[in-house]
Design brief:
Elements lengths: L1 E6 L6 H17 L2 E6 L2 H7 L9 E4 L2 E5 L12 E5 L6 H9 L3 E5 L7 H5 L3 E3 L5 E5 L16 H9 L2 H10 L20 E5 L7 H9 L5 E6 L6 H7 L9 E5 L4 H10 L2 E5 H10 L4 E4 L7 H13 L3 H12 L3 H11 L2 H19 L4 H15 L1
């Protein structure tokens, strides 16, 4: 099978990240030949260093990367055409689709809402006679599943069991930290809690820094370059001259596989958007998701639908809401303290492991998409 995947970068990196993972997944799971059309190769190059943004067509790991420009190259459609998040293929390409109709898939956004199950896989006849099918990623067997590579859990477990491997990886990022096998230091100086921060610009940083400053457990906060640009100013403004707040370390924007390892290193991951929340889930560690904000608070309904499935302990759920609603610093600090200590933290760690184990038992998105297309071909 030969597939074309079309990807437009809207305003962040999640769209590109999902499409690149899908392209790799289809090649790995089904041996498909894949062309990935991207309208912002510079953004793609940040997560895939092998990409040369100047080239109109290039091969990376056996996947053809096509620059989707104002005058895209005239390439014949493959057996499957996947438009990510309702980005229509170029007009000339779509016209060529009518000559030899492919299986046309609209890969939708991720949602935990119940209605997704009834809409997944539905056909949508087009005015020009073509047929498009809706494919919804999701968290239940009745949806399209989630992107997950074969052998991911085994690689993660081996990495997390090796303090040396984690320490070497972090050192390569410029991070020095003692990762002894014991989880805690002596009673007077507990080991730092390793936290990653990947958030939108409107995240309530004042409250987060204040919460970490008041925490008896020291925090090592790893933040990708360009994320939360005012973080250091917030931390400095609230400082007292004493080393009581989090230690903030800027790290480079990482390729996807290295970002996975970063998530595996952490005790707690703050993530944003849909690609990062899925990858943080596979880390098997507690996470805090900043869902993409929408008008009229619609995103909070989507967050609650996801929380109903994720099932964190009540204190952790309160922290999710404080983070996503921009709660006052005192409220966020209280939520942080309640969620990251004692029995609540232990319960949250258990919920994170259960989430990974339950979803890992389901077929991954690439496999389900391959099966979906095979079934459509049999019917034709």
């Amino acid at each position: 099978m030969h597939a074309d995947i079309f990807c437009r970068r809207v305003d962040n990196y999640g769209d590109v990240g999902v499409c690149w993972r899908l392209a790799r997944g289809l090649r790995q799971a089904g041996g498909w030949r894949v062309r990935l059309w991207i309208d912002d190769l510079a953004a793609f190059a940040r997560m895939e260093p092998r990409c040369d943004p100047r080239l109109p067509l290039q091969d990376i790991g056996g996947i053809a990367i096509v620059a989707w420009s104002a005058q895209p190259p005239a390439l014949p459609p493959g057996d499957v055409v996947i438009e990510a998040f309702a980005c229509d293929p170029p007009a000339a390409f779509r016209a060529a689709m009518r000559g030899r109709p492919p299986i046309w898939i609209n890969l939708e956004y991720l949602s935990a809402e119940a209605w997704v199950e009834s809409h997944h896989g539905l056909p949508s006849p087009q005015p020009d006679g073509l047929m498009k099918y809706f494919f919804f990623p999701g968290f239940t067997p009745a949806t399209g599943g989630l992107l997950r590579e074969a052998g991911l859990a085994a690689r993660r477990d081996a990495f997390q069991r090796s303090p040396q491997a984690r320490q070497v990886f972090l050192r390569e990022l410029g991070v020095t930290v003692d990762l002894a096998p014991s989880e805690h230091g002596d009673a007077g100086r507990p080991s730092p809690r390793l936290v990653t921060l990947f958030c939108y610009p409107d995240a309530p940083l004042d409250g987060l820094i204040g919460a970490m400053r008041g925490d008896p457990v020291r925090t090592l906060l790893l933040v990708p370059e360009g994320v939360a640009p005012r973080l250091e100013a917030v931390a400095g403004a609230a400082g007292t001259g004493k080393v009581t707040g989090p230690r903030i370390v800027r790290i480079p924007f990482l390729p996807q596989d290295d970002y996975d390892r970063l998530l595996w290193c952490a005790d707690l991951n703050f993530v944003r958007g849909e690609d990062s929340v899925v990858r943080a889930g596979w880390a098997g560690r507690p996470l805090v998701w900043q869902i993409y904000p929408q008008a009229d608070g619609v995103h909070l309904d989507k967050l609650d639908a996801w929380l109903d499935r994720y099932r964190p302990p009540a204190p952790a759920r309160a922290l999710f809401h404080a983070w996503n609603t921009g709660a006052p610093p005192a409220v966020l600090a209280a939520a942080w303290g309640n969620a990251t200590s004692g029995a609540a933290w232990a319960a949250w760690e258990g919920a994170a492991r259960a989430w990974d184990e339950s979803l890992s038992g389901q077929p991954d998105l690439a496999t389900k998409l391959i099966e979906f297309c095979a079934e459509l071909r049999r019917k034709c």
